[in-house]
Amino acid sequence: MSERDEFATFIDVGTSPTKDYVLLGEGISSAQIDYNPQTTTETYINQRSGTTTVDSYQPVMSVDAKHIETDEALDFLDTLRKTRPVGDDAKKHIVNVWLYETPVLGEYPAEEQEVNIQFDSFGGAGGAKNAMSCKLNYVGDPVQGTFNPTTSTFTAASE
Question: What is the CATH number of the domain that holds 64?
């Protein structure tokens, strides 16, 4: 099994239409994708046990961080948090990169995903650094492709 540092997420901090991806990493103690499968279970009259089918997914990445003022990704999120964005203002893009897979010419398998950022909490206990919790709610289907961590460039797979 791969280690956590071999799954990287980059967030677009640029202004549309130019994308500027920076690593979500420093100050972040936890970030994981919860796929939230949407299922249907049915038990037919000739069965004792039901059958469950997966209908869709509603992925969300929960992010827990301690604010580090010199980190570009955390500065971006903190600035965004202060505006309490909703609707289109809360939509951004991320790229999940599977660094545990074999790169081709320095590019790793990746997916670009539109997300809607939800801020849950900010602050913390006395004497501690300010903590921030947010969720990156996935919007629609990802775009498969490759990502070059050196140039921070995503390339969509040709269909």
Answer: 2.30.110
Q: Is cis: bond before 149, omega within 30 of 0?
A: no
CB 6 within 8 A of CB 100: yes
Q: Which residue has the tokens 């990493």?
A: 25
Confidence of residue 159 (pLDDT cuts 50, 70, 90): low
Residue for token pair 């990156």: 136
Task: Determine the average pLDDT of the residues in 31-60.
Answer: 95
Q: What's the pTM value of the predicted model, to 2 decimals? A: 0.92
Let me know if residue 8 belongs to a domain: yes
Domain that holds residue 31: 4-37+54-156
